[in-house]
Design a protein that fits this description.
Rossmann fold; 21 strands; alpha/beta; 7-stranded mixed beta sheet; about 400 residues; single chain; 5-stranded mixed beta sheet; binds flavin mononucleotide; Metallo-beta-lactamase, Chain A
Length: about 400
């Protein structure tokens, strides 16, 4: 494949990954993912972020570089915005091919270059305020954006073209479908990338939302014409769109998200499932958007994405060995770990003799700042009175969620 010019002197040299592997060993990517590297050509040549040897990515990168008449040994700098191995995995191989190249990374990145790749020569630590002049008008400015996604993360800004290369920030799952640019994909594909950016955000970046907000503040002082992240579309038509989207996603942690209810249910013998129907009818009576998941069947990646953008959550699960039905505990633990705060929540479920699920649920969610609608536990199968109550609780939750204003232009 050939390199793709983004703007004068900056080219995409990444990889469109299609694989059955899981991203980070845990997130499904049935629609692929891209690992974007960029080469910036002044008198000196810099590659910003690399790839790992995954589904042919390293070969693609070198072929694309060569399509510009550049060989690895011509490269002067490897700029590493972020040391996660999806962007650095082939660093050692590239470094050995490129005898003169210097590694530029954040000050916190320097020890990680040593730890992951055993390299400490020709490694320079930079920070906010530092610049690197490549010649021919190409000047790189560096900005620390810690914890978006690791503590060492930085962003690189090429001033003459006003191009921001922020690595994982503003990224998305989803392989390219023919174009790498936001201004040449269809509206339907924008919808696809929007869902995949939400899933990426909720899976990867969500817990660092306060750092995302700080990064947007820091980078907000820049005039940005192009955003070239390390995963997903290159935003040259409307870069504001992805900034706004990330701003909204990050703020979901600080205030109720969108007027939508994510429902997560697990049931061994169908009694809890019976009550789910009544809850759903109650929600439907108020016309609120829902998304329904079953544990353990549905993957947590999709559950997290839905939970992240929903103001309302419903958990339905029975008691199991005096605690919560274990697949629900697993899902809830991930939701808590990802810091899906500020939700309106209703929980229900069946028990056989003692119960216990509710107690564990209450203990787990203690710090989540969730508004709890009175839970509904019942012994064995639900009675008609139980089902009426379930309908009412569903409707009550939906009425509360309906009041939450829409934040994302593209919602639902
Ligand atoms: C392996 C197992 C362990 C259970 N442990 C408890 C328990 O500790 N306390 C309790 O009250 N019920 C317990 N139950 C009973 C279930 O909570 C009860 O059957 C419930 O109706 C199951 O709901 P479901 O039909 O939605 O799966 C257990 C059931 C199973 C199969």
């Amino acid at each position: 494949m050939k390199a793709i010019e983004i703007v004068d002197g900056i080219h995409w040299i990444g990889a469109n990954i299609s694989t059955n592997d899981l991203f980070e060993g845990m997130w499904p990517i049935p629609h692929g993912v891209t690992i974007n590297s960029y080469v910036i050509i002044g008198e000196k040549i810099a590659i910003v972020d690399l790839v790992r040897d995954w589904a042919g990515a390293s070969t693609y990168l070198i072929d694309e570089l060569r399509s510009l008449g550049i060989n690895p040994q011509d490269v002067d700098y490897f700029i590493l915005n972020h040391l996660e191995p999806d962007h650095t995995g082939d660093l050692r191989a590239m470094y050995e091919l490129s005898e003169k190249a210097e590694i530029i990374t954040s000050k916190k990145g320097v020890p990680l270059v040593q730890a992951f790749y055993g390299l400490n020569e020709k490694v320079r630590g930079v920070g906010s305020g530092d610049t690197l002049d490549l010649g021919k008008g190409k000047i790189l400015h560096f900005f620390d954006i810690p914890n978006v996604h690791w503590p060492e993360t930085m962003a690189t800004y090429e001033a003459s073209t006003k191009t921001l290369l922020p690595c994982d920030a503003f990224g998305s799952f989803g392989a390219f479908k023919g174009s790498i640019f936001d201004d040449s994909v269809s509206q339907a594909d924008h919808k696809f990338y929007e869902r995949e950016s939400l899933r990426y955000y909720a899976n990867i970046v969500g817990p660092y939302s306060s750092s995302v907000l700080k990064a947007i503040e820091v980078l907000g002082s820049l005039e940005i014409k192009i955003i070239a992240p390390s995963h997903g579309l290159v935003w040259r038509g409307n870069p504001t769109r992805i900034i706004e989207r990330y701003l909204v996603y990050a703020n979901y942690m600080n205030y109720y998200a969108e007027p939508k209810i994510s429902i997560i249910c697990g049931s061994m013998y169908g009694h809890t499932e019976l009550m789910l129907r009544a809850v759903l009818q109650g929600i439907a009576s108020e016309g609120v958007l829902t998304e329904i998941f079953r544990v353990p069947n549905d993957h947590i990646s999709y559950i997290l994405a839905s939970v992240w953008e929903s103001a309302g959550l419903v958990f339905g699960m029975p008691t199991y060995e005096y605690k919560m039905y274990p697949p629900m505990r697993d899902a809830l633990t991930q939701i808590i770990h990802k810091k899906a705060m500020h939700k309106k929540v209703f929980r229900f479920g069946s028990f056989g003799w003692s119960g216990g699920a509710q107690k564990e649920f209450d203990a787990l969610i203690e710090k989540m700042k969730w508004d709890i609608i009175e839970p509904l536990e019942f012994q064995g199968g639900p009675t008609d009175a139980d089902l009426d109550l379930a309908f009412e609780r569903g409707a009550t939750l939906a009425r509360e969620v309906k009041q939450i204003p829409i934040k994302l232009k593209e919602f639902p």
